[in-house]
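Hey team,

Filing this mostly as a record. A colleague (T.K.) asked me to run one chain through the structure pipeline before their review meeting, and I want the input and output archived in the tracker in case anyone asks later how it was produced. No errors, nothing strange. Just documentation.

Input sequence:
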Amino acid sequence: MIRVKRGNVALKRRKKYFRLAKGYVGSNSRLSTFAAEQVVQSLQFAYIGRKLKKRNFRKIWIYRINAASRALCSTYSKVIGKLKKENIFLDRKMLAFLAFQDFKAF
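Output structure:
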């Protein structure tokens, strides 16, 4: 029976994981099984982190708008309600920028 030489596909897969696991500590960058597991987990954490970053920035914008509106003797919800009532479509990012950088324009 002829011997089957495997390894081309498997070696490519392992090299892919090792390339992605470069810089990890210990076995996570040296052993193929651990490297593969760590890369999958790291990619999941990166995906979750991107979602959390958006969430945290929105929180910061709301804090800044609320602080600026309280300095003007109002609250965040009243300011947002008045803006929507007047059909002024500024997003929270722009409002927070105005409140933080140019308070008089806010």
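Quick notes for T.K.: The two ends are 82 Å apart (CA to CA). The chain is about 70% helix and 0% strand.
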